[in-house]
Amino acid sequence: MGPVPIDAQEPWMRGLHADTGYLLYRLGLRSGQLFNTFLQESGLRLRHYALLRFLATSEGALQRELSARLGYDPSAIVGLVDDLEKLGFAERRPSPDDRRSRIVVLTDDGRAFLRDTDEAGLRVTNDLLQPLAPAERDTLHTLLQRVAEAELDS
Predict the structure, then answer these.
(1) Bridge partners, residue 94, by sequence
(2) Would you give the DSSP letter of residue 3?
(3) At a CB cut-off of 8 Å and minimum separation 6, what does 119 contact?
(4) Which one of 25, 36, 56, 110 is most buried, by most CB atoms within 10 A?
(5) pLDDT tens profile 67-102
(6) Would you call 93 helix, strand, or coil by DSSP?
(7) What is the mean pLDDT of the chain?
(8) CB of 72 within 8 A of CB of 47?
């Protein structure tokens, strides 16, 4: 006997859907799945994409700064940067402030990759948010941004 399908009308399921934290979790999982599927062709995952996006907004960052800003374990950052270096999307350079430290910078190929994936990334977001009107999408983004900024500042 296989697994029993989940009935969305069960009281416990309706209770979960009333929980904002659970909904954010489920939508985050779905968004990650969609992004990872879209990135699969390039051999990258959402974590790589997030790191590239962060580097696109800076002149370079120390690996420990990337870890703190993105919320990734420091050992994970090392592997992600290694992967991006192999693809030519990022490179480690001596820090201008401290020659003993190395910063991670986005390469021209990394910038080109981000430009090439912008439209596909937008398509993934549009698929996920398809049930919402454009004004509702803007409101959702503004609210999520406010929560994320408050969380990052704490």
Answers:
(1) 102
(2) P
(3) none
(4) 110
(5) 988 989 999 999 999 999 999 999 999 988 887 888
(6) strand
(7) 86
(8) yes
**Minimal CA–CA distance to 72: which of 41, 46, 110, 96?**
46
Cα-based distances in Å from 44 to 32, 99, 113, 127: 12, 30, 11, 20
What are the structure tokens assigned to 35, written together? 């992004």
> Is pLDDT above 70 for 153?
no
C-alpha distances (whole Å) from 136 to each of 5, 21, 34, 90, 140 are 32, 19, 21, 36, 6
Q: What percent of the chain has pLDDT over 90?
A: 43
Instruction: Write phi, then psi, for 92 (nearest 5 degrees).
Output: -95, 135
For 132-152, the pLDDT digits (tens) are 999 999 999 999 899 888 876
**Element housing 92 (H / E):** strand 90-94
Please say whether the beta carbons of 107 and 55 come within 8 A.
no
